[in-house]
């Protein structure tokens, strides 16, 4: 952006100089034009080369690629017929509160509220009627219709739907349909222009443009695949529509997120099309998709965390919890292990590990390389299948350390059972280094580096003996994450 500002200043200077020169003699005007004009032309050329996306023709994109975009209408299960009209009583039609009560007691057959038709979007991927859309928007539908850009409407059959990825495959009985061009999201970069087409509120095709904010955003409980984050405007009915690059190629499927009014306001996300097409192939062949699972929760490593585990670089996926009885647990893995490889391929961070595992078949055996106690080890893990998925306190067990800002106590047996943990200490006070690390009262500290915490005394012995920062595995309301606390 600094170069843009500089060029604009240069252009303004040229304009001022030209204006001043016009008040001078003709003899002085010609040299000024001769010397400054090439500089102006050079600035304009360099700007165009540096920012080619700004001149993209979105009108042409809408004309060429719009015909392959469809509106998807999903009818809910027929529960309206079972509703009983509460007001007005039969035969009373002139009550002054009639309009008010109708908002809360729809008459039988009234198609509003939770019974209303669900609108979504989609795009055609084969001339004979295969259509990709968002799985969540058609879940539980009793019937689906698809409206083409030219106005034709067809009933649609659900070939398969995969809640884990958010991808659904529909089919209509039609031939010679326009087909969306499939691109690759791997070339996308943050800041690049993109466009989205869809049918917001079922009103028909529209196009919006924006930029890529992040190319690999992993959201908890949303999708195993890293999502493409954009600043596009997200409206009801856009889910399932294509995200297009500057060539008009599909690089993602718009996916709506839960509307909780908090976390994701102003953000839009898309499932990468390469991951979606892997799922589409399974749905086409089998009517369903299966995904491998190792049964761990992971987080990214930071530099301080990496040093705490004896790593020179923050590469790998740090295991924060292992499902009891799951594949990883059976292979001997535990919280504090750092997964650094899968089947010989390096794992650089936690973002792409879930997708790498999910792309494998349940029952397959994978080789997981992981770092523990200063060495790389290997485990043969047999993948399972991914699913759709104030107490008494004993004061003598308290301990605190003003040096670290931590006050902790041992857990009671009831607390362990309620939290689903074995061992650990509960935080009662957090200040200084502990607070800076993000530790809060009520947290349960389960591990220090790779060692399980068994008591307050053992916990502080480990901290005192540490010559550098320590990694603490913290459980907060069932969610586990490693944090780094300074002890040196």
TrEMBL record:
User: What are the residue boundaries of the PDZ domain, all occurrences included?
Assistant: 288-374, 398-478
| Signal peptide bounds | 1-17
An annotated Gene Ontology molecular function: serine-type endopeptidase activity
Key word Cell inner membrane present: no
Give a single Pfam family match.
Answer: PDZ_2
Please verify whether the record's keywords include rRNA processing.
Answer: no
Q: Which GO terms describe its biological process?
A: proteolysis
Q: Which family does it belong to?
A: Belongs to the peptidase S1C family.
List the PANTHER family hit by this protein, alphabetically.
PERIPLASMIC SERINE ENDOPROTEASE DEGP-LIKE-RELATED, SERINE PROTEASE FAMILY S1C HTRA-RELATED
Per its record, how is this protein called by name?
Answer: Probable periplasmic serine endoprotease DegP-like
Q: What is the lineage of its organism?
A: Bacteria, Pseudomonadati, Pseudomonadota, Betaproteobacteria, Burkholderiales
């Amino acid at each position: 952006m600094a170069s843009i500002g500089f060029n604009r200043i240069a252009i303004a200077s040229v304009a001022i100089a030209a204006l001043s020169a016009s008040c001078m003699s003709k003899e002085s005007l010609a040299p000024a034009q001769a010397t400054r004009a090439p500089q102006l032309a050079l600035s304009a050329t360099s700007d165009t080369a540096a920012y080619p996306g700004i001149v993209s023709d979105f009108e042409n994109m809408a004309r060429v690629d719009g015909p392959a975009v469809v509106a998807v209408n999903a009818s809910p299960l027929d529960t309206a017929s079972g509703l009983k009209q509460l007001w007005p009583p039969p035969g009373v039609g002139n009550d002054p509160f009639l309009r008010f009560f109708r908002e809360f007691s729809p008459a039988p057959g009234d198609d509003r509220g939770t019974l209303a038709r669900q609108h979504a979007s989609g795009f055609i991927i084969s001339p004979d009627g295969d259509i990709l859309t968002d799985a969540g928007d058609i879940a539980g539908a009793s019937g689906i219709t698809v409206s083409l850009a030219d106005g034709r409407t067809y009933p649609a059959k659900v070939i398969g739907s995969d809640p884990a990825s958010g991808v659904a495959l529909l089919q209509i009985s039609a031939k010679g349909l326009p087909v969306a061009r499939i691109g690759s999201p791997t070339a996308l970069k943050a800041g690049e222009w993109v466009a989205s087409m869809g049918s917001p509120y079922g009103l028909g095709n529209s196009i919006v443009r924006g930029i890529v904010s992040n190319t690999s955003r992993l959201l908890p409980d949303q999708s195993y695949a890293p999502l493409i984050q954009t600043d596009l405007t997200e409206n009801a009915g856009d889910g399932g529509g294509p995200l297009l690059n500057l060539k008009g190629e599909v690089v993602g499927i718009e996916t709506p997120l839960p509307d909780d009014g908090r976390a994701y306001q102003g953000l839009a996300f898309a499932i990468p099309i390469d991951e979606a097409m892997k799922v589409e192939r399974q749905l086409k062949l089998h009517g369903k998709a299966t995904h491998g699972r190792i049964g761990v929760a992971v987080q990214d490593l930071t530099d301080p965390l990496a040093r705490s585990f004896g790593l020179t670089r923050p590469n790998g996926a740090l295991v924060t919890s292992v499902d009891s009885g799951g594949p990883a647990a059976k292979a001997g893995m535990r919280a504090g292990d750092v997964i650094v490889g899968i089947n010989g391929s390096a794992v650089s961070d936690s973002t792409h590990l879930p997708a790498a595992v999910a792309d494998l078949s349940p029952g397959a055996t994978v080789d997981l390389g992981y770092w523990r106690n200063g060495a790389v080890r290997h485990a043969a893990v047999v993948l399972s299948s991914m699913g759709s998925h104030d107490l008494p306190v004993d004061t003598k067990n308290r301990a605190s350390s003003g040096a670290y800002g931590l006050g902790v106590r041992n857990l009671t047996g009831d607390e362990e059972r309620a939290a689903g943990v074995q061992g650990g200490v509960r935080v009662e006070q957090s200040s200084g280094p502990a607070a800076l690390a993000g530790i809060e009262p009520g947290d349960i500290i389960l591990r220090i580096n790779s060692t399980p915490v068994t008591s307050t005394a053992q916990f502080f012995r480990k901290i005192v003996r540490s010559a550098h920062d320590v990694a603490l595995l913290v459980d907060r309301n069932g969610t586990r994450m490693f944090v780094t606390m300074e002890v040196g």
